[in-house]
Amino acid sequence: MNTAVQLRVAAGEHRPRADLLFGTPCDLGEGTLGPVARFRSGQVVAYLMRSRRRHRLFVFRTLDVDDPLAVTVPGVRPRVQLLMELGTAGRIRLARSLFAYLVRTGRDPSALPDIFYVRVGAALGGRLPGHKILQSLLPSPLVAMPRPQGTSERKRAGGVRP
Predict the structure, then answer these.
(1) Which of 14, 26, 34, 78 could form a disulfide with 66 if both were Cys (CB 3.0 to 4.6 A apart)?
(2) Cβ 59 vs Cβ 29: under 8 Å
(3) Average pLDDT per run of 10 along the chain, which is 162 residues long?
């Protein structure tokens, strides 16, 4: 099943503008509001919507069927699997540089697993404090590590000072 994405290149004062940040459409048609890009199932698409005051980036994967549990993204039909949503200019700029890096290094963003984008979205979305990002990606230790002995305890135990 193909997914249609509405592009709006010439936006008016009160109408949002919608562009593709990343994605290779299989077909490009003309709609009533502007061009419509069609994507095959399983493709990762980065879709940027801009209005006067707000910017929103949706990164989603197109689906094989119209799943009722999937997410509705404005201007995209049928529903898709939303991987991340960003709403600030700085975070959108970082996501843009991520896709540029993936393309520059020859990696296909559609071949990366969904959990990659979910983790990137959590890090870029600011839902974790900076010092906890690494801790959240690493497995938790099962056994507590023994604490190193202090210098006074080493001297009593006959240890050598490092």
Answers:
(1) 78
(2) no
(3) 88 79 93 91 95 90 91 94 92 90 90 87 70 52 54 54 50
**pTM, to two decimals:** 0.76
Is residue 159 within 8 Å of 149, Cβ to Cβ? yes
Helix (H, G, I), strand (E, B) or coil at 42: coil
Considering only CA atoms, which of 142, 61, 146 is closest in space to residue 108?
Answer: 61
Q: Where are the domains of the chain?
A: 3-137
DSSP string, 63-96: -SS--TTSB--TTEES-BEEEEEE-SHHHHHHHH
Rounded Cα–Cα distance for residues 63 and 59 (Å): 13
**Which of 74, 82, 24, 28 is closest to 51 using CA atoms?**
74
Residue environment code for 71-101, b if the CB has 16+ CB neighbours within 10 A, otherwise e: eebebbeebbbbbbebeeeebbeebeebbee
The DSSP bridge partners found for residue 27 are: 38
- Strands 55-61 and 44-50 come out as antiparallel
